[in-house]
Structures are given as C-alpha cells and as structure tokens.
Amino acid sequence: MIDQVTGAGALPFAVQLKALLDQEARYQPKLSGLRVIESAQDNGLRMTVKLRDFQVRELLSLTRFFGFSSETFSLAVNLLDRFLAVMKIQPKHLACVGLCCFYIAVKTSEEEKSIPLASDLIRISQSRFTVHDMMRMEKIILEKLYWKVKAPTALHFLRFFHSHIQEQLDAESKRILNIERLEAQLKACHCSFTFTKIKPSLLALSLLALEVEDQHECEPVPALKAALDGLQESLTVKAGDLVCVRELVAKCLAEYATTKCLKPNGQRLRWMISGRTARQLKHSYYKIAHLPTIPEYAC
C-alpha cells in the first residue's frame, strides 16, 4: 500500500502531504456516476444507495471474519465505489463485483499466507457465482480502473494526520486521540454512501476534528487544537466545509450507534462454517477477529 514514513529520516510533512494530495484526486469515484446511483429508483433494475451500503456492510463482515486489516477494508470500499461510478451494473451482479473488489484488496494488502482461496470466499459469503465468474469480473474491474489499485484512502490520511498531531503533543496529551477508536469510526462512515462524494483527506480531518471537539469539552488541550488548526491550514480546507462534514460524521456515528442501524451480519457467516464447508477451510480461518465497539469516553 501507500506508506508514510515518520520519525528520523522521514520526508518533511509538507512533502508527504503534497504527494498524497496529488494522488487523491486520481483515485476518487467519478461524481457523475455517484449522482446516477443517488438518483436511481429502487426498482430492482438499477444500482441504488441502499444496495451499495448493504454490499459495503457485507465486505465489513468478511473483513471481520477473516481478521483482515483496516487497510484491506478501506481499499475494497474505494475499489467498489470507483467501479460503481463508471459502470452501470445490475443489482444481480453486485455480489460478484463486491467480492472481487474485496479479493483484489486482500491480495494487495495482506500477507500471501493469509490470502484465502477464491472458492472459500464464495462459500463463506454464500454467493451463487463460480470461481470462473470471479476471475472474469476481477479482470473487468481492473481494466475499468486502469489497474490503479493502490489508492490513498481516508485511512491513509487518518493515520498520517494522527501521527503528525501526536508528534506535537506531550506524553499525557497523546493519550487523548485513540487511533483504534478513530479507525472504528471511519469504518462506520465507509458504510454510508454519503461519504463517497467527500475527499478522503477531508473525511479524515473531520473525524479528527469531531474527536478533538468532544475531548476538548472534557479537558481543553490548547496544543491539540493548535495542531488541528495547523493541519486544516495545510489542507486549505474552509472552516464551513469542515463544519459541514464534521456534522455529517457526527450524524452517521449517532445513527450507527442505534439499534435501528443495519450493522454487518456476522451470524450469517458463522452459520456457514459447519459440516463439509468447515472441513474444507484452512485452520487459520477459524481465528475470527471481531470489530470492537467504538469506545465512548465520559468527561
């Protein structure tokens, strides 16, 4: 994936940031395609926002089941959104497209020994297509995306910004921004179509801004606020834009925390691991890493 180097010997922050921002625009879903999805009627014939969000939750379920990294999930979502924005696919093909994007992300981000067989992915996801179907679809996806796979995702920006802010804080203040909590929040945002039209860098900044705002009310830390303001200035993000996206993030996280929100369905995957299928899977597949609940801190 795209690595940022911090500490001694690292390139200056401004240089690394410029390199990421230069790539960001080239790996964004086409707005025109996203608008088509957004305006589509739910008649079973066209791709809709609801179907897209459902598929992303399926990918999150698979990520949790296999214990794959956050990088894998974020990249899979990026590939899926970019492909849906350039191709008008029928809903019946969405499961194959989603699983192929996931498989491409797995092969890009995970260690070779952790990559499952395509046939196992199909079994576990209870899909009805074949390995040959996956191979053909994977080729189509890569060709339509011009083989540009290693995208700078919101996760890259989030980790990069978090590291930059931490360098400016003392030991006590560094405990305030919890990267695991922030990454869990980002996964929740990925499950909402709303954020497909927002630049990854702005989404990452908004997550940090919301967290700083919440923590600042509990225990004001001037250095933390100053670091965030400096980051906003480096990105040339207008205050109004940041406030708008920050409110969208807050709304998304509030909805995700309710029982009404449709969360990834791990039970369906657990049901699949039984009998003949269980005997055919590699031993490592039984090590299920669950996505932790987004922790809440009280003042």
From TrEMBL:
Q: Which domain of life does the protein's organism represent?
A: Eukaryota
Q: Say if the entry is tagged with keyword Signal.
A: no
| InterPro entries the UniProt entry points to | Cyclin, Cyclin-like_dom, Cyclin-like_sf, Cyclin_N, Ig-like_dom
**Could you tell me which Pfam families the record lists for this protein?**
Cyclin_N (PF00134)
Ranges of residues in domain Ig-like:
222-299
SMART domains this protein is in? CYCLIN
Enumerate the UniProt keywords alphabetically: Cyclin
| Similarity-based family | Belongs to the cyclin family.
> What name has this protein been given in UniProt?
Ig-like domain-containing protein
